[in-house]
Amino acid sequence: MNNAYFDFAEPKNEPVLSYAPGSHERKALQAAIAELKGQVRDIPMYIDGREVRGEVKKEIRPPHEKSHLLGHFYPSTEENVHDAIDAALSVRETWAALSWEHRAAIFMKAADLLATKYRFRMNAATMLGQSKNAYQAEIDSSCELIDFLRFNVHFLSQIYKQQPLSPSGMNNRMEYRPLEGFVLAVTPFNFTAIGGNLPTAPAMCGNVVVWKPANTQVYSASVFMEILKEAGLPDGVINLIYPSGPVLGEICYAHPYFAGVHFTGSTAVFQSMWKSIGNNISRYKSYPRIVGETGGKDFVFVHPSANVNAVVAGLARGAFEYQGQKCSAASRAYLPANLATEIKEKLVKELKTMKMGIVDDFTNFINAVIDEASFDNIKRYIDNVKDSNGAATILCGGKCDKSKGYFVEPTVIETTDPSYVTMCEEIFGPVLTICVYEADNWIQELEVLDGTSPYALTGAIFAQDRHAIDYMTKALVNSAGNFYINDKPTGAVVGQQPFGGARASGTNDKAGSILNLYRWLSARTIKETFVPVEDYRYSFHKED
Ligand code: NAD
């Protein structure tokens, strides 16, 4: 019997634990790290609720401690991809038919399990597998993922409530159906929370999902899958597999029931996906939803009236937390000549205090970058400064060492050329490039900023002059999807700063907001007339 509308009230953001010395959470997290390091985890795929293992194993090692073996996973074959799609489609109707309050309860329970029983295991897995410090893991794999789950349940219940007008004589209603097929979730290495949100947001809407995380995030993704199973997610609703991108794409994009992709990752991969989907467009039962949040070249623009200490703190945290591997990380800064010397001196002094090393030592602010390919890529940008014919110099940092783990010092490059390569391209590492401009030319410099990179993800302005703040906010209207005033460009919180960028940075469907959920729904409008007309003629047909 369904005789009531079940609502889910707006939640509060999950409080961030401090992990200060002597705290309960610090001890619990250290114990969870020790426990995981004492095991070699054998991580299966999850297809139709079954644990599936293949012939070939791939090792997982902490990026900051290559000598330690954490576990292994099984790269998926073509057959595994087909099985995952078939499993998803086989439960499509029963999952869509489950009453909303029971579907919602599964994700609310998963949030509660993560907030309590699994919190430290999940954070420890993220610290070890992705080289995050305790605080960065807490805000990502616990708080943000818990918020995604709880807020999305709330947003969806808001959507379900929205109904059209019904004048007398009829009843009009809207049903918010899931898509007719399966949704593919392809997730990046850098946020465990994104890994969890991309499959669950469509699933919550009644869709069935094939989820492929980055190989470098499989370790923590599998912990989330354990939580979903314990929360009661029915078999086949979310299928977790680890194929290569091309194998996955070839099978999924050619499938008639491919209903959409929920992607976060680099711009190049997203553009190649879109092309393949376009090439297959005539095969599909319906037009696939293409949602992708991609790369950035996030800016900090400092106005001549800015508060220097606020700028220095914003750059230190905004560019270097999690080794600059946030899509929102500040990676180019424009400094006015009147403040530049003081900002540079103070920033360099601060960066020299940042300790770098393994995640087990909580005093380390900087850990390793994700893998060797990323290390080599970042190092290339740093090494190339030498060959820039004086266009760029290294202000601090620059040392890279991959003997024990993939360590790159927090590095500041200064350039006199606002279109120098590191002002334009996403590096995805702890590298900030600064460019000093004439203070009187700040308005022209905004145009330079706006035209320098194809991206428009995040950006921050620092100023105390209110007219300047107003001017910059308007002038940079298309330069960023998340725009910050007197704050760093990172650290968006679910429910507070819905996240996503435009231009080459993605479709701007704002993860963790109501806008995103609409993309996973296909509304059906139903009109019922109580007393139908029985004569096709209108009054005006009658003779005078
Ligand atoms: P990536 O593009 O290398 O990988 C993302 C995912 O795509 C992974 O699961 C990967 O295995 C998969 N993939 C790679 N090639 C594929 C192919 N040909 N077909 C299908 N899937 C394929 O990105 P990454 O290194 O994991 O993450 C870093 C990137 O993600 C950066 O560019 C960053 O800016 C971006 N990012 C953006 C946001 C955002 O919200 N805008 C958030 C986080 C990360």
Describe the overall structure:
This protein has 544 residues and is of the alpha/beta class. The chain folds into two domains: 28-59 and 75-294 and 506-524, 3-Layer(aba) Sandwich (Aldehyde Dehydrogenase, Chain A, domain 1), CATH 3.40.605; 298-485, Aldehyde Dehydrogenase, Chain A, domain 2 (3-Layer(aba) Sandwich), CATH 3.40.309. It is built from 17 helices and 23 strands. The protein has helices at 24-37, 78-90, 92-97, 100-115, 119-130, 134-161, 192-204, 218-230, 245-252, 267-279, 308-320, 337-351, 372-384, 421-424, 442-452, 466-475, 514-518; strands at 41-43, 45-47, 50-52, 58-60, 71-73, 170-178, 182-186, 208-212, 238-240, 258-264, 289-293, 298-302, 330-336, 392-396, 400-401, 407-408, 411-415, 431-437, 455-456, 458-462, 482-485, 502-503, 521-529. The strands form seven sheets. Strands 14-17-18-13-12-20-21 form a seven-stranded mixed beta sheet, with helices on both faces. It has a five-stranded parallel beta sheet with strand order 9-8-7-10-11, sandwiched between helices. Strands 1-5-4 form a three-stranded mixed beta sheet, with helices on one face. Helix 11 links the parallel strand 12 and strand 13 (330-336). Helix 2 (78-90) crosses helix 9 (245-252) and helix 11 crosses helix 12. The protein is globular and about 85 Å long. Nicotinamide-adenine-dinucleotide binds at residues 186-191, 194, 212-214, 245-246, 248-249, 264-266, 269, 272-273, 293-296, 327, 426, 428, 457, 499, 501, 505-506.
